Each structure stands twice: as structure tokens, then as C-alpha cells.
Amino acid sequence: MTANEDQEMELEALRSIYEGDDCFKELSPVSFQYRIGDHEDPKAFLLEVSWPDTYPETAPQISLDAFFNNRICPEVKQAMMAKLEEQAEANLGTAMMYTLFEWAKENQESLMEDHQPVPSAVMQPSNSEITNFTSTSKKKEKKEQLTKSQKRKMTGRTDNRGELPRGWNWVDVVKVKHKTGGKDDD
User: Where would I find the RWD domain in this sequence (predicted)?
Assistant: First the structure.
């Protein structure tokens, strides 16, 4: 079989194996991404693999340069790349994408054992940061200050829930009609 026929067969197999898998993404017929771990997992990483024209006789191009991997320090990335390339070399001549992805899933802990999250300028805020932000923004909103006499008048007008009755600021139509008179007063 030629390299293109091998690639077509492997592509078909990958599509059927990973159909419906949110971790797998086909970027093009010769380029793929696979997320190892959950989004929230600090040890999760995105493995990007591209096939050269002579694949599977030559090793695929493996990359960890995706934006998802920005929190992984360069030393850990280099160690991971070395181990992944070693696996690719061991499987030369055969369809290895499934094997490579599964090996990475099984060895995620050992691949990321030295991982310390790198602080990044662009990171998603945690839930505590979000609530802290909303609480500070609520503190900045000031309500209109009322005098004591305004407050007394307000309590006289409110119902048991502290709400003003409907139409509390309407003009008393009956009083106005009484003072001005109606159309029938000729």
C-alpha cells in the first residue's frame, strides 16, 4: 500500500473511533488535536499531530504549542515531546495515531509529574475571583440618601412588603376635577 492509502484508511478508522468524542478534533485530513484530561484539570494538555506526506513510514509531527498548553512550562513540554517522539519512533511503519493518543492518556500523570502551572496574563478567573469582582462592583453602587423626614413619609406610604402602592405619585384626578370643574358646568 502507498502512504496515501494508509493515511486514508487510518483517517477513516480515527473518524469512526472518535466519533462523538469531545476531546478529538480533526483540523484537516492530515492534522489532528486530542485533549488529554478535562478542561478544569490543571494537568490537561492538548496534543496536536500532523502527518507528513510519507507518514506512516516517517514519524508524524507532534506539537504542544497550542494556546491551551500555555500554562505548561517549557521544560515539561520538552520532556513530554521527547517521550511522545520516542513512542512515535517505536511505532514507525504502522498506523499510530490511536496508539499515540491512548498512550498519552494512560501516561498523563507521568508526563505531567513535574508540572507546576505557569501564571499567565490570560487565564480564566476562578469562581472566587468572579464573586469577589461582583461584590466589589455592588459596593460601589450607592443608593440615594434620604433625610429622616423623607424616610418617615416613605414608611407611611408603603405596604407590608416595603413597596409603594400602585399610583402613589399620580395626581388625584378627583381633586383636580373638583377644583377645575367639569365640562358640564355651564
Answer: 9-111
In the chain, helix, strand, coil percent, each to 5? 45, 10, 45
For 29-45, letters b (16+ CB in 10 Å) and e give: ebebbbbbbeeeeebbb
The span from the CA of 95 to the CA of 35, in Å, is: 20
Q: 75-98: b or e for each residue (b if 16 or more CB lie within 10 Å)? A: ebbebbeeebeebbeebeeebbbe
Q: Are 64 and 45 in contact (CB under 8 A)?
A: yes
Cα 74 to Cα 99: distance, rounded to the nearest angstrom: 25
Other C-beta atoms closer than 10 Å to the C-beta of 68 total 16
Amino acid at 106: E
3 CB-near residues (< 8 Å, 6+ apart): 53, 54, 55, 56, 57
pTM: 0.56
Q: What count of other Cβ atoms lies within 10 Å of the Cβ of residue 20?
A: 5
CA distance 120 to 10: 37
Instruction: Express each pLDDT in 54-107 by its tens digit.
Output: 887 888 888 888 887 788 888 888 888 888 888 888 888 888 888 888 888 888
